[in-house]
Design brief:
- The complex is a heterodimer of chains A (146) and B (136).
- Chain A is α/β, with parallel strands linked by helices and 146 residues long.
- In chain A, 34% of the residues lie in helices and 16% in strands.
- Chain A has one domain (27-129): Rossmann fold.
- Chain A has helices at residues 37-49, 60-68, 88-98, 113-118, 131-141, and strands at 29-33, 53-57, 75-79, 104-108, 123-126.
- Chain A has a five-stranded parallel sheet with strand order 2-1-3-4-5, with helices on both faces.
- In chain A, strand 3, helix 3 (88-98) and strand 4 (104-108) form a beta-alpha-beta unit.
- In chain A, helix 1 crosses helix 5.
- The model of chain A is unreliable at 1-25 (pLDDT under 50).
- Chain B is an alpha/beta fold.
- Chain B has a single domain (2-135), classed as Rossmann fold.
- Chain B has six helices and four strands; from the N terminus they run H-E-H-E-H-E-H-E-H-H.
- Chain B has helices at 2-5, 19-31, 42-50, 71-81, 93-105, 116-135, and strands at 11-15, 35-39, 58-62, 86-90.
- In chain B, 49% of the residues are buried.
- The chains are: A alpha/beta (146), B alpha/beta (136).
């Protein structure tokens, strides 16, 4: 799961603190919302290996706090069923209201994909999914940075 | 610290319930070349430490982290169950940023990417934005 020898990429050296020079130079940021720690670590590791910056949220409330913080997010990848007041569908609704330009990929093993798509999800990924499929989907749905 | 002698595999487990703080610290340490594992609660941290395939050298933990155990209790648990790990407890954003900067001074390879005060400034800025957004 955790690959040895991960190299810090130059594109990583942007985010957070003394950001940003030019928008077109920044690595894109994916917010991963998943309450299962093992799954979250596997997913974020795979996405970081693809060169994206990843922000982790352990539940919907954390994700909502991060979105409200004003930090830049280019995509949200969220589980549906999570503990707490904000599940994935509530997070999707919040994102549509506050950051409608940000694509939201929804994932679940026991939720109707049609309901998620009907609610405005950019895509739905059925659990369990191969990490390669996730990476390809994220790559296809990430908006081009201007 | 184990990581200072084995920089290629040095990794830090950050245990902090505040996603803005956690993300800023994680980003800072990644810039220094560390691999970073994030835990949002003491329960998640215990799960991480129980994962055999995951190597951790240092645990950077907020004393007031959410979960069944406080940061102090988690530190005690780590010392009893994983005595080879170094635990750094922090009680403030400033303390956490300073601890992260000290880790960067010890390797793995990039040194401090920027001054720890910048981490604190970033967190203050994000929290202010968050506060403004929540008041709308």
């Amino acid at each position: 799961m955790w690959r040895e020898g991960r190299v810090v990429r130059k594109s990583d050296l942007h985010m957070a603190v003394n950001n940003k020079s030019a928008a077109e130079q920044r690595a894109r940021v994916i917010l991963v919302v998943e309450d299962e720690w093992i799954i979250r670590m596997t997913v974020v590791d795979a996405l970081r290996d693809e060169g994206w910056n990843v922000v982790e949220a352990a539940d919907g409330v954390e994700a909502l706090e991060f979105l409200q913080s004003g930090a830049i997010v280019d995509m949200i990848f969220t589980d549906v069923r999570m503990p707490g007041e904000v599940d994935g569908m509530a997070l999707l609704a919040f994102a549509q209201r506050t950051v409608p330009h940000v694509p939201v990929i929804v994932t679940s093993g026991d939720f109707d994909p049609g309901s998620a798509m009907g609610a405005g999800a950019t895509a739905f990924l059925v659990k369990p999914y191969p990490l390669g499929t996730l990476a390809a989907l994220v790559s296809a749905k990430l908006p081009v940075v201007r | 610290m184990t990581g200072q002698n084995d920089h290629a595999s040095a990794s830090v487990l950050i245990v902090d319930s505040d996603i803005i703080v956690r993300h800023a610290l994680a980003d800072y340490l990644r810039h220094c070349g560390y691999r970073v594992v994030e835990a949002a609660s003491s329960d998640e941290a215990q799960l991480a430490l129980a994962e055999a395939s995951l190597s951790v050298d240092v645990v950077l933990c907020d004393v007031a982290v959410a979960g069944h155990q406080s940061g102090f209790e988690l530190a005690t648990w780590v010392r009893q169950n994983r005595p080879e790990l170094e635990v750094k407890l922090t009680a403030s954003v400033e303390g956490a940023a300073k601890a992260a900067a000290n880790l960067c001074d010890g390797g793995p390879h990039l040194g401090r990417p920027y001054e720890p005060d910048s981490v604190v400034d970033y967190i203050i800025q994000r929290r202010a934005t968050q506060q403004r957004n929540s008041e709308r």
